[in-house]
Specification:
single chain, 356 residues, alpha+beta, D-amino Acid Aminotransferase, Chain A, domain 1, D-amino Acid Aminotransferase, Chain A, domain 2, 29% strand, binds 2-OXO-4-methylpentanoic acid
Length: 356
């Protein structure tokens, strides 16, 4: 059993102020947060307490040099209303992989699972019941040394916040394949879920929005040819009935939804290829009429259909009635999360049932 969590509850929950039929993404926080501190080479001071502002020194290393990593997870309600987590252990594996790349300390797996189970069980009244909505869980680890100078911090904080959310993309999205800017190069930090990757995407995404597109689709840094991912999700194409998605190779976030969808589609009998995808191949398939659908996967996005993709002068439009692979993927993952689809993989676990 990991070190016990010290729990302090709010006197009155704010959940009554939530309009469950109208939840924006990312704006509403639940009553409590989890906090842990790393000092003298170990994690401790595990606590759940009312959500509050932090008091941070202006010399905080995370702000200056970017040692900040995070995760995104979701909790949903099962058929009897039980709070459910989806593959929580995958998120601590990935958080710790990000930590290793950013020279940050690993967080103990048992303490993480204990924290997630405990806070989600405490906040279960905030879990929206409708399909496509969820309780979004945001673990965040950042450096806290007070110093100026480029070096790894010796102190860190880990927080876990919870937010009831509606769909990240309520409608199909349009993408612009960027031919100038890049997200990640081989040897860089593209595979880490670190704040700077998202900061770097903001300016190109702003330009894409000015051109009328919702998001950027990144191409590789060297040749501007091979598809990587979208700013907010991994990307899939269906060509001639075959599902193709970029191989991760160190530059692409190893999406847990991506991994889940690959497995579900393979089990359904789809041929799924993880490989380098040349953007010219996408354009050719579109022109030949064999590119039937494009969709993104992510914790926040779940499955987001793409209705338009632009590369140089070619604008590709996708008929949403043909999006059968993504429809299967979406209904299956949502069904697993609300227990209307049988969970044969033990991916779904009830919050509050963790024992180390
Ligand atoms: C997630 O999918 O959980 C992310 O962290 C991506 C972000 C766009 C919300």
């Amino acid at each position: 059993m990991s070190q016990a969590i010290k729990i302090t509850k709010v006197a009155h929950s704010n959940v009554d102020s939530l309009d469950f039929d109208n939840i924006p993404f990312g704006k509403i926080f639940t009553d409590h947060m989890y906090e842990a501190h790393y000092e003298d080479g170990k994690w401790g001071s595990f606590a759940i307490k009312p959500l509050e502002n932090l008091s941070v020194h202006p010399g905080n290393l995370a702000w200056h040099y970017g040692q900040s990593i995070f995760e995104g997870m979701k909790a949903t309600k099962g058929k009897d209303g039980a709070p459910l987590l989806f593959r929580p252990e995958e998120h601590i594996y990935r958080l710790n992989a990000s930590a290793a790349r950013m020279c940050m300390p690993e967080f103990p797996e048992a303490a993480f699972l204990d924290a997630i189970h405990t806070i989600v069980k405490m906040e279960e009244a905030w879990i929206p019941p409708s399909e496509g909505s969820a309780l979004y869980i945001r673990p965040l680890m950042f450096a806290t040394d007070e110093a100026i100078g480029v070096r790894p911090s010796e102190k860190y904080t880990l927080l876990i916040m919870c937010l009831p959310v509606g769909p990240y993309y309520p409608k199909p999205v349009s993408l612009l394949a960027d031919t100038k800017y890049i997200r990640a190069a081989m040897g860089g930090v593209g595979e880490a879920k670190t704040a700077g990757n998202y900061a770097a995407s903001l300016y190109p995404a702003k330009l894409a929005k000015e051109e009328g597109y919702d998001q950027i689709m990144w191409l590789d840094a060297k040749e501007h040819k091979y598809v990587q991912e979208v700013g907010t999700m991994n990307i899939f194409f269906v060509i001639d009935g075959k599902v193709v998605t970029p191989i991760t190779e160190g530059t692409i976030l190893k999406g847990i939804t991506r991994k889940t969808i690959i497995q579900l589609l393979e089990e359904k009998g789809y041929d799924v290829e993880q490989r380098r995808i040349n953007i010219d191949e996408i354009v050719e398939a579109y022109k030949a009429g064999t590119l039937s659908e494009v969709f993104g996967t992510g914790t926040a996005a779940v499955i987001a259909n793409v209705n338009k993709l632009k590369y140089k002068d070619t604008v590709m439009d996708f008929d949403q009635d043909k999006a059968t692979v993504s429809a299967y993927a979406k209904s299956t993952i949502n069904g697993l999360r609300n227990q209307t689809v049988e969970d044969t993989h033990n991916w779904v676990v009830e919050a509050g049932t963790y024992t180390a």
